Amino acid sequence: MATLSLRGVRKSYQAGFETIKGIDLDIADREFVVFVGPSGCGKSTLLRMIAGLEDITAGDLLIDGQRVNDVDPSKRGLAMVFQTYALYPHMTVADNMGFALKLAGVSKTERDAKVREAARILQLESYLDRRPKALSGGQRQRVAIGRAIVRQPKVFLFDEPLSNLDAALRGQTRVELLRLHEELAATMIYVTHDQIEAMTMADKIVVLQGGIVEQVGSPMELYNHPANLFVAGFIGSPRMNFLPVTVASGDGAGNGVVALADGNQVAVQMGEALPAPGTPLTLGIRPERLYWDPNGPFAGEGHLVERLGGLTLLHLTLTGGEELVVQTDGNDPVQPHVLVRSAVSPDECHLFGADGQALRRPGHIAQPPARPLPGEAPVVATATA
Length: 385
Prior knowledge:
ABC_transporter-like_CS, Rossmann fold, P-loop_NTPase, cell membrane, 5-stranded antiparallel β-sheet, CATH 2.40.50.140, cell inner membrane, single chain, 22% helix
């Protein structure tokens, strides 16, 4: 397959509006990289720039070390799967998958062999003689992916390919794409606004906001050590709780206490010294890290209970007026309109400064641990302090 690098890549339009604001990124051979972010963050534009469907205003795009800014899209060795299937309704599945090869002058024998192999990989062998109208949404999307596979590209590009599918089918197709990645040992770049897709599929996540990269890392690196408030709030479901606090005390070694709006105090443990007492900060706590404690600092009345089967979400209004979500076991008998208390371990607290940047937590990993790519032996990572 291929490596891909972006060096200071920018995209501007005539009105002076800049959508991509200087992105540097390296994508390794056989990596599954997900661009994730809210609508309008620039993720699809960046993908289209890689594909050659959008011009690069400044910077360099390199594939296997070769600059390809001015190379025609058809000659970059990439294949793109779009949000819409864009299948020819009058053609069979086999004809749809092999049409690009036919236009390229590939012989019928070779074309048929590549279509049959793609159909085997995608479990579409029994559908080759059908037309798109006789297929489900998931099967149509697999045909669109097959159309990319037959071209044997260096890099696969996916632009929100699951957004038109229902929830159950999205989950099934996610698994199929991961299986496809393993079987093809391919380099893949995938765009989505769904952080669950990003967490479950990626080797590496690139979080975008306003045309800039907020953070790059493995799914668990971003979950456990978000670089700022935006990443902390975007990665994780349900989203992280944020509470205004002030520093009450600290020992200079990262151990300290912060005060909530109602005066209750929370012990925290950081990997760096806390700011001076009285400094306002934002405390971040993931709902699943909270637990019931009759003496806990988070006191409030539940006003909504969401029972989701395997887990329960209790929405609290704290005595200081802040909102807090606590995730508990699905069989938890907790009821709304009851005063409850909860707590969190000091090393599960996140703190963010006035600039939105995170204070470093214990066990912070500067670089995500090595993760074996398809076809490679597992790498044993050593713990870092």
